[in-house]
Amino acid sequence: MEQDNNIQETMTPAQRVKSDWQALVDKLSYKAIVSNMPFLMFLAVLCIFYISNSHRANELQRQLNVQNNMLKEMRWKYLDIKSQLMYVKTETQVINNAKRLGLQPSLLPAYKITVDTSKKQ
User: Fold this and answer.
1) Confidence (pLDDT) at 3
2) Inside any domain, residue 116
3) From the centroid of its chain, how far is CA 82?
4) Fewest Cβ atoms closer than 10 Å to its Cβ: which of 5, 48, 53, 112?
5) pLDDT per position as a tens digit, 46-98
6) What gap in Å lies between CA 117 and CA 56, rounded to an integer?
């Protein structure tokens, strides 16, 4: 250990960079890749899951946007029909529609007809 420290202390900066580069190449050698194959496979599977999950989330978001647009349109239609119905139900509109059928509003107030059931005939 001391020998490695002494060697690194006596190296120039260029030699240290070259040494670090050689250490990196050794780590990425064929033997290192083969020995880490299970971990690399695990990483590949994780990447595939991540990509498929992001695609699925994007598709769900698109479907939600379409459903929200449909909901907004249906709400607009509902409010439009509701306002038209409120207009048609006004007293003046009812009288105008009744005139087309030949009906006229009564000039007398409404009255109640009662039958006296206590008298027998």
Assistant:
1) 56
2) no
3) 29
4) 112
5) 999 999 999 999 999 999 999 999 999 999 999 999 999 999 999 889 989 89
6) 76
Same-domain check for residues 48 and 74: yes
Who has greater pLDDT, 91 or 42?
42
Instruction: Report the number of distinct structural domains present in the chain.
Output: 2
Q: Tell me which residue of 62, 44, 41, 40 sits closest to 52, measured CA to CA.
A: 44
The DSSP code for 107 is: S
Q: Is 0.90 topped by the overall pTM?
A: no
68 and 44 co-located in one domain? yes
Phi, psi torsion values for 113, nearest 5 degrees: -100, 125
Residues 101 and 94 sit within 8 Å (Cβ to Cβ):
no
Q: Which domain holds residue 43?
A: 36-96
Asked if residue 30 is part of any domain, the answer here is: yes
Do 105 and 98 meet the contact criterion of CB atoms below 8 Å apart? Answer: yes
Angstrom distance (rounded) from CA 61 to CA 71: 15
In a domain, 80, yes or no: yes
pLDDT mean over 29-39: 83
